Amino acid sequence: MLQGRGSMAALKRTAQAVWHGNLKSGKGDISASSGVLQNTPYSFATRFENSPGTNPEELIAAAHAACYSMAFAFTLSEKGYQPESVQTQATCTIEPQQTGGFKITKMRLETQGKVSGIDAETFQQIAQEAEAGCPVSNALRGGVEIELDVTLT
After folding, report:
1. Dihedral (C-alpha) 127, 76, 62, 6: value to the nearest 10 degrees?
2. What are phi and psi of 11, to 5 degrees?
3. Beta strand pairing status for 15-20 and 27-32?
4. Are 69 and 86 in contact (CB under 8 A)?
């Protein structure tokens, strides 16, 4: 068990975004209180046309990949296995809706783990358990399909 997890205070993380102008020709920037994002630009083109820069879906994918990798490593350790590495690629799918607007419909997690002394079946079971406990998965669950593909390397 995570040391002191039961008595840990709630954590709050803060980010802000500003947008100038209309959707098509406007632009904005994103900052996070940690400083890792500082006036990071985003625009219609970075979101819908693959121009350089970031976008909300990429940031959600990054958060999900990081969160799941940590949850999986934690769950493996709780089960007595010592992961050497856990690498996750998350793909966020956003689709236009018939009623207008867009919706994030799917998150696909593709994870490779290097763990000694574990068989593939146990690895798969622990991967599923970790996904069920991943805070970002739980925030998305119910409105977004989550696919998990794990490989023991």
Report:
1. 110
2. -100, 145
3. antiparallel
4. yes
